[in-house]
Amino acid sequence: MSEIERIALIGAGVIGAGWAARFAINGIDVATYDPDPRAAERVNEALENARRAYARLTLAPPVPPGRITIADEIAEALDGADFVQESAPERVEIKRALLAEVSRATDPGIVVASSTSGLLPSELQADCAAPDRICVGHPFNPVYLLPLVEVVGGQATSGDAKARAAAVYRSVGMHPLVLDTEIDAFVADRLLEAVWREALHLIDDGVATADEIDQAIAYGPGLRWSVMGTFLICRLAGGDAGMRHFLEQFGPALDLPWTHLKGPALTDELIERIVTQSDAQAAGRTARDLERLRDDCLVSVMQGLRARNHGAGAVLRDYEARLFSRAHRASRPIDHDLSRPLRLHTARVAPDWTDFNNHMTESRYLQVFGDATDALLRFAGVDSDYLAAGHSYYTVETHIRHLHEVAGEEPIAVSTQVLDCDEKRLRLFHRMSHGETHVELATAEHMLLHVDTAAGRTVPAAPEVLTRLREITDAQAGLGMPEAAGRGIAMPTASDLRSDPR
Amino acid sequence: MSEIERIALIGAGVIGAGWAARFAINGIDVATYDPDPRAAERVNEALENARRAYARLTLAPPVPPGRITIADEIAEALDGADFVQESAPERVEIKRALLAEVSRATDPGIVVASSTSGLLPSELQADCAAPDRICVGHPFNPVYLLPLVEVVGGQATSGDAKARAAAVYRSVGMHPLVLDTEIDAFVADRLLEAVWREALHLIDDGVATADEIDQAIAYGPGLRWSVMGTFLICRLAGGDAGMRHFLEQFGPALDLPWTHLKGPALTDELIERIVTQSDAQAAGRTARDLERLRDDCLVSVMQGLRARNHGAGAVLRDYEARLFSRAHRASRPIDHDLSRPLRLHTARVAPDWTDFNNHMTESRYLQVFGDATDALLRFAGVDSDYLAAGHSYYTVETHIRHLHEVAGEEPIAVSTQVLDCDEKRLRLFHRMSHGETHVELATAEHMLLHVDTAAGRTVPAAPEVLTRLREITDAQAGLGMPEAAGRGIAMPTASDLRSDPR
Predict the structure, then answer these.
(1) Both A259 and A370 in a single domain?
(2) H/E segment holding residue A181
(3) Interface residue B499 vs chain A (CB under 8 A)
(4) B199 vs A102, A187, B53, B355, CA distance in Å?
(5) Nearest by CB to A226, which of B210, B225, B399?
(6) Contact assessment for residue A305 and residue B226, using Cβ atoms and an 8 Å cutoff
(7) What is d(CA B333, CA B335) in angstroms, rounded to the nearest whole number?
(8) Which of A32, A410, B146, B458 could be A9's S-S partner, Cβ–Cβ 3.0 to 4.6 Å?
(9) Left if phi > 0, otherwise alpha if psi is -120 to 50, otherwise beta: which for B381?
(10) pLDDT attached to residue A502
(11) How far is B6 from chain A (nearest CA, A)?
């Protein structure tokens, strides 16, 4: 999978250490040179962060990690390397001299890339031997996680060198953006630098604080930018009429003092160029297609952040807590006929609950049944206060029967029968059916135990909960025991099979 | 939960329609006025998009949706409204006249907010009656999903009006950023506009295309911006030495031609201000703390995008596919002792698999067991080609026993016993244990049927698969039947309980 076996890293600051972690985790031996005595510590810290992140990032089997060595001399780091990445401080004279030294000490066939955020490759390669293999490979912090790397050549750089650098980056899970034209700060850092300078003006002008500026990004535009860039986003802001409409509507704002940066003149020629490029990017997808792609991704991003309870995810979590508590207050036990199975939970099969056949995956059945169990418990008085006081029911046994497939977006409803209960035990039987056709899709039988969650042992439930559960059990007694209840899994013997008329 | 019951929306373009969807979904009645005959259609489309997104966004019980009406006159929309949101075209003369009309037609106690992206509230409120309740509430597209809304007052606006607007937005799941100082384009749109103008320069200069610019955002900096703003990100780029080091290192770049925008002079006073605000924002968290927060969130965001197979998520999916295929080539069935339970699946409990107690949720047990079943099937030759040819095994029955709680991040391993198989049936028994302590955490027994997936009926498995499964069944016969196999759920009767010595 990897294109190279050993890489030399010149410079081990935040970026160089991040490269060391990414390459090592991908099974490539790393030799690092940095005169700073803290370099080894920085590399170790980056590697520790990266290991921690990759343990969550993927369940794919990791490759055996590469070996990291800290070299005392540049020549030692370069020895045997089949790719070189330079990440020295952002000063043209330092980088230019370093790259010249590296170029003289390496075989002319070895590609040498600089991590510079914006210095021109033509300047960096000016003093190099065999400058055709010198290019820029500009990554983003944290280098071990973010996929983007801009690959830029100078006047002397060959297309082959850029292609080989891109292949190396791709082999370690990155997304190389190979640019045709060199320009100060390339593409990404021009945008980053514009944001940075505008943000500095805001602080300098006393308009907003660093934290307010950060909030203005991470709770809104930043969420979109993780999904789509500025042009697709603006296209969608133009509605069905797309980019042309957006430029008509917001073009005049280019003359307003909305940033310290003066835009280019929005000539007809520039408008045509933007509209044409935007159409190419949309590649025939309608505004509706792109909106749904954007929304699907935004939902996933926000759910991801919810799992970390951070930023927009913390807002979502707080919002949901209020929805749950509102629903709890609104649920009226009195509305239900206790002698019938209780229909307390409905759901819709989310698009990401299905496999490649668009069938709901096994585990989502249990999720829906688990939610139905929670609904029954809330109905019986096991609410958030009860849980907060340190008591809960834990499921200890589950028996599911799958009767029909369920497809994405289908509505489902669960009705629940309380088969039995005592002080510590609760036995439930759920039936999941299609929300409209009422076809029975699956059943689940559960045994739950009432526990003291801190002590981790079973204890009797609170009297009011027990009273409520017994009331339901008694009222439903007339329903009888479901045929599937109490059944174990069995496979008929060969003689059973022979007598099976089917 | 909601602060208001009925809102008047003046203007139903992309933004106004988005507001209609957000408020209606949150149970608030919406009256919309827009002279454009396509307004109703736009509102319906936004509502449809929003419903679709919310069905995935949260499993919390939705509130009964508010009613949306399209008014023929502004006065009709305003009738009975307890909040007004104006989203007319971005022209100061249009908005100023509209807001003046709205202000004369509403009770002076009703807050009126403008969605303007950057016009000054002092100008907008200039002709209004009771201008103290006129403010800006600037949202971001899609309004029904993105939490950010900037709340800005003009010279005449009262603090109470801003607080009331913020409370309304918070009640519908948003994150109001209440700014003290009004400035053209506020905060977020100054940054957006700087990016937009710089991006227009890049196209105008022929340096990059719209799609390249978008890639330069969404595969790198955009991912970070969904988690943290520019200042926290730069602080971390400075390593342990933080913002002061970053400013030392990248301060000189402010003089480089890295954007068309000229930054402010980086005076000692400005440096101190930025460092102080950055320290306040970090709130005592070390670089390591913040790096891990950033990385945890980036992993979750990338996993979210992986679920949609989009952008950075598609890069991750492709990377993982290569890791899996590499591991698959490396795995040799011959390495396994078929007479022992087969240990074919390991996993780590992802942070988002756990409930608020940090215990793995019920449904994730079945997910892990389902993955173990898939691993056994692959081991027996049911690979992607086999599935593509239209045959598969479907689980029809499951019996899970939960023996111990499992916490987030814990390693788990599953070993599998094939209890029995015939032409169409397969009976499995999995044991899930802690990856290091080997404590048994749960067991699962499954019955599977071999199916023709297109026809949706059971058919015999392919001979080579059957041979392999029988080979395993025979080799494992010596293990005997697990005690829990074939067991159903039962609850002891009262007399059983009395004789129970525990």
Answers:
(1) no
(2) none
(3) no
(4) 35, 8, 30, 43
(5) B225
(6) yes
(7) 5
(8) A32
(9) left
(10) 33
(11) 19
- What is the CATH classification number for the domain harbouring A375? 3.10.129.10
Q: Which residue of B has its CA nearest to A227?
A: B218
CB B26 within 8 A of CB B171: yes
Chain B (410-449) residues lying within 8 Å, Cβ to Cβ, of chain A: 419-420, 422, 425, 427, 445-447
Q: How many other C-beta atoms are found inside a 10 Å radius of the C-beta of residue B364? A: 22
Asked if A136 has any chain B CB less than 8 Å from its own CB, the reply is no
**Which tokens go with B455?**
């026809």
Q: How far is B133 from chain A (nearest CA, A)?
A: 22
Distance of alpha carbon B259 from alpha carbon B197, whole angstroms? 10
Q: Which of A127, A162, A186 is the last residue of a domain?
A: A186
B441 is a domain residue = yes
- Same-domain status, A153 and A10: yes
Q: Do both B100 and B174 map to the same domain?
A: yes
Residue A354 pLDDT > 80, yes or no? no
* d(CA A70, nearest CA chain B) in Å: 19
Share of chain B above pLDDT 70, in %: 95
Quick: pLDDT tens for B458-476.
999 999 999 999 999 999 9
- The count of domains in chain A is 3
Q: To which residue do tokens 């990016």 refer?
A: B195
- Shared-domain flag, residues B181 and B82: yes
Cα–Cα distance list, B171 to A94, A318, B145, B165 (Å): 55, 10, 14, 10
Q: What would the pLDDT profile of B206-238 be if each residue is shown by its tens digit?
A: 999 999 999 999 999 999 999 999 999 999 998
Give a yes or no: residue B303 inside a domain: no
Q: How high is the pLDDT of residue B499? A: 34
Q: Are residues A51 and A178 in the same domain?
A: yes
Q: Is the pTM of this model over 0.90?
A: no
Tell me the C-alpha distance between A102 and A31, whole Å: 14
- Contact of B131 with B156, CB cutoff 8 Å: yes
> Over the range B183-197, which residues count as b (16 or more CB within 10 Å of their CB) and which as e?
bbbbbbbbbbbbbbb
Backbone dihedral angles phi then psi of residue A113, each to the nearest 5 degrees = -115, 145
Instruction: Judge whether A361 is closer than 8 Å to chain B, CB to CB.
Output: yes
The answer as to whether A266 is a domain residue is yes
Statement to judge: residues B165 and B247 lie in one domain: no
Q: How far apart are CA A355 and CA B318, in angstroms?
A: 18
List the Cα angle A16/A17/A21 in 5-degree steps.
115
- Note whether A152 and A232 are same-domain residues: no
pLDDT of residue A498: 35
Amino acid at the residue A321: A
B62 contact residues in A (CB cutoff 8 A): 323
Of B281, B297, B19, the closest CA to residue A226 belongs to B297
Position A264 in a domain: yes
Tens-place pLDDT, residues B153-198: 999 999 999 999 999 999 999 999 999 999 999 999 999 999 999 9
pLDDT in tens, B97-136: 999 999 999 999 999 999 999 999 999 999 999 999 999 9
Distance CA B186, CA B202 (A): 25
- pLDDT tens digits for range A117-174: 999 999 999 999 999 999 999 999 999 999 999 999 999 999 999 999 999 999 999 9
Half-sphere exposure of B340 (CA within 13 A, CB side): 8
| Over residues B321-330, mean pLDDT | 72
pLDDT tens, position by position, B236-290? 998 888 899 999 888 888 999 899 899 999 999 999 999 999 999 999 999 999 9
pLDDT at A13: 94
pLDDT at B494 over 50: no
* Domain interval for residue A360: 332-479
Do B81 and B129 belong to one domain?
Answer: yes
3-state secondary structure of A267: coil
B347: closest CA of chain A, how far (Å): 7
Write the residue in A14, A194, A322 that is nearest to B195 by C-beta.
A194
